[in-house]
Structure formats: structure tokens, C-alpha cells
């Protein structure tokens, strides 16, 4: 199956008070669809662990062009998109009932040797999977984010039980919730179009304290709100994110 698709209505817990889909909920949809597709393709958790390997999400960019509403029927699709250097690429989109893409994303994954905790070249795995050439959800997505220079401490989080997934570390979507919680809630609720780029730099385990540092991004003519976020543990960055909300 080259492209995995699953359809369902947007649930009550996936929206905010505007009744529009949240970024964190979109991440939840994406990671579940990616997991199921990987299992169908024979590169899910069990066969990868048996081979001494694992998938690690390194970067993802998500562009929300329209936020689907509570109860709206959507179709979430995902597909492998080859590789670039050490990154295995996987794309996503969410389409409305007219088959129009309203959310688009590109993710970059590392395939790591579990014992040595080192990345492997992705070709051996990705060559066996559909390449889906020409099917690009978000060309140029999955960007590397440079450190920001004028960050100020804005808050603290401690990784708690509900943040931890079956891998024993903070789940990818939880970082997005942390970004949402440190951002301006009014801007998020009123957002029509938004983009989030996030880089995962180091895993975070339960009870570890994380400092959240923020800085407005350089002004953009069509942006009504921007925010750069860096999570730090003992002074070192564990993730970086850039949020842009446009009118």
C-alpha cells in the first residue's frame, strides 16, 4: 500500500474553544497513521526491533491552511517519500470531504542502531518501500532550525506520566502541547492559517525538568503572531520550534 488513508470525524478532544483542530491533535493523527502504515509495510516497531533498529523522529514541519471543525469528516493520509542524506522522509496531509488538502506536513526520521544509539544510512530500509516520486505534501518542509540569539526564559515543565509514551520518553506530540501552552492562547484560538516547524534534538524522560525559552521571530508581512521556542535541560537544547500564525 503506497499511501495509507484513514477517515473519521474531528473529535471533541481534538479542538480548542474555536472548535478548530489544534496542532497537537494533528500531530496525534499523523503519528498514529504513520505507525499503522509502517506496520503494513513491514517496518513497524516489532520487525525493526528484531533487526536492532528503531525509528526516531528528528524534524517535522506542519502547515495548516484551514482548521477542520469539530465533527467534520477528514481523511488523514501518509506515505514514505524516499530519503535525503541520513533522513528518511514521510509526508502527510489531511483532506476535507471535497478531497482538498487543508493540512500538509513533511517529517524527517532517523533509523538508529538501538544498541549503539547511532544513525544508520536509510537506503537499505527505504529502497524496499514505495518512493511516491512527485507526491510532495510540503516541499522544503522538515527544515533544520538554527539557535535563536535573544531568547528569554518563559516557563518550566517537568516531564510527567502523561507525557511519556511506550518508548519511555516524552511523546513527539507532547512537545507541541508545550509550545501551544507557552504561546499566546488568543492567537492560537483565532488562528486560521498556521505553521509549526520543530526539531527534536534529545529525548526527555520522566521527571526531567525542562526550561522553556522564547523569542518573537523576525517580522513577516503576513504574520500576525510568531514565536520561537527552545526547550533546555541543564543548559542544553532538547528541542527547537518555530510557530507562525498568518491572517
TrEMBL record:
Q: Where does the Acyl-ACP thioesterase N-terminal hotdog domain start and stop, copy by copy?
A: 2-121
Species source reads Treponema primitia (strain ATCC BAA-887 / DSM 12427 / ZAS-2)
Q: Where is the Acyl-ACP thioesterase-like C-terminal domain?
A: 161-222
Q: Which UniProt keywords apply?
A: Fatty acid biosynthesis, Fatty acid metabolism, Hydrolase, Lipid biosynthesis, Lipid metabolism, Transit peptide
Q: Does the keyword Transmembrane helix apply?
A: no
Q: Which terms in the Gene Ontology molecular function aspect does this entry carry? A: acyl carrier activity; fatty acyl-[ACP] hydrolase activity
What family is it from?
Answer: Belongs to the acyl-ACP thioesterase family.
Tell me the protein's name.
Putative acyl-ACP thioesterase superfamily
Q: Which Pfam families match?
A: Acyl-ACP_TE, Acyl-ACP_TE_C
Stored InterPro entries: Acyl-ACP_TE_C (IPR049427), Acyl-ACP_thioesterase_NHD (IPR002864), FATA/B (IPR045023), HotDog_dom_sf (IPR029069)
Amino acid at each position: 500500500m503506497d499511501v495509507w488513508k484513514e477517515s473519521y470525524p474531528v473529535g471533541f478532544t481534538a479542538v480548542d474553544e474555536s472548535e478548530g483542530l489544534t496542532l497537537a491533535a494533528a500531530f496525534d493523527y499523523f503519528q498514529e497513521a504513520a505507525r499503522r502504515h509502517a506496520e503494513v509495510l513491514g517496518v513497524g516497531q516489532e520487525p525493526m526491533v528484531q533487526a536492532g533498529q528503531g525509528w526516531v523522529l528528528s524534524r517535522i514541519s506542519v502547515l495548516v491552511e484551514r482548521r477542520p471543525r469539530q465533527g467534520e469528516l477528514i481523511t488523514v493520509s501518509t506515505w514514505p517519500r524516499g530519503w535525503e542524506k541520513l533522513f528518511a522522509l514521510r509526508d502527510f496531509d489531511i483532506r476535507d470531504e471535497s478531497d482538498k488538502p487543508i493540512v500538509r506536513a513533511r517529517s524527517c526520521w532517523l533509523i538508529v542502531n538501538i544498541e549503539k544509539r547511532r544513525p544508520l544510512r536509510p537506503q537499505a530500509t527505504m529502497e524496499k518501500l514505495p518512493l511516491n516520486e512527485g507526491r510532495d505534501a510540503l516541499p522544503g518542509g522538515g527544515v533544520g532550525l538554527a539557535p535563536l540569539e535573544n531568547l528569554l526564559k518563559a516557563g518550566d515543565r517537568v516531564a510527567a506520566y502523561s507525557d511519556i509514551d511506550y518508548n519511555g520518553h516524552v511523546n513527539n506530540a507532547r512537545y507541541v502541547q508545550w509550545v501551544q501552552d507557552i504561546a499566546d492562547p488568543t492567537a492560537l484560538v483565532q488562528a486560521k492559517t498556521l505553521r509549526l516547524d520543530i526539531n527534536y534534538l534529545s529525548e526527555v524522560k520522566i521527571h526531567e525538568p525542562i526550561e522553556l525559552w522564547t523569542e518573537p521571530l523576525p517580522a513577516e508581512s503576513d504574520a500576525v503572531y510568531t514565536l520561537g521556542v527552545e526547550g533546555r535541560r541543564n543548559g542544553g537544547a532538547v528541542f527547537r520550534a518555530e510557530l507562525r500564525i498568518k491572517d
